Amino acid sequence: MTIFVKLPHELEAMKVSGELSARVLREVGKRCQPGVSTWELDQFAEEYIRDNGGTPTFKGYGGYPASLCASVNDEVIHGIPSKDKVLKSGDIISIDIGATVDGWAGDNAWTFAVGNVAPEVKRLLEATEKSLWAGIEAARAGNTTGDIGHAVQQVAEAADMSVVREYVGHGIGRDMHEEPDVPNYGRKHRGAMLVPGMVIAIEPMVCLGRRRLKAGGDGWLVRTRDGKPAAHFEKTVAITEDGAAELISVEPDHVRPL
Ligand code: MF3
Ligand code: CO
Known about the structure:
binds 2-amino-4-trifluoromethylsulfanyl-butyric acid; four-stranded antiparallel β-sheet; alpha+beta; binds cobalt (II) ion; 4 helices; 27% helix
């Protein structure tokens, strides 16, 4: 197994793709409104990424046909955009987007509320975002991937929700998926040691109900088995010499909520 540590100039290059992938995600989020199809969101995202000097990381990745994943309500991840999938008030939509610039991948996800969502669904979004920030907080040199997973799991389960096990965060660099795996559950001090210069995508997938999954039937889509909604938040961070991880996928006016 090879964990790539990035040099300072490589981290600077990764911030460019990180920023673009975060910015396009925010722009897509604004467009997650009733009446909009997930195909329209994908068209917008691909154009935005290309207009800003990037290429859509996901398109063609393992045969994936689109520039983003749009997963609605009980769809957890890997929803292929479709003209037939039109958003309505009360939906939640998890958008996962990758942008590659100068050969470096950026990878981000966020779950957006469409119109007014039920209080329990709002709670799901809040708990999942909070679990992401807890994971980021644990992403420090000398800690391990298990410390991150433990932190994520604690927050999600304290809110009475469940954490997906089958899909995990990952190292990221020239490849979207590099070593190490970054699970959203686990035990302190286990897993890979975090060292300065490592860049990882932390991406909790949290279910309002049970964590069991089922395949969606098109070879990509993953749903909750119980039909209850799930959320997915992802950011890319670099491990620093000391102190907190540095956000690599950050919009220009982003305010860190911690
Ligand atoms: N962005 C996802 C991840 O975080 C992968 C997207 S699947 C793809 O790992 F095949 F569409 F790229
Ligand atoms: Co990812």
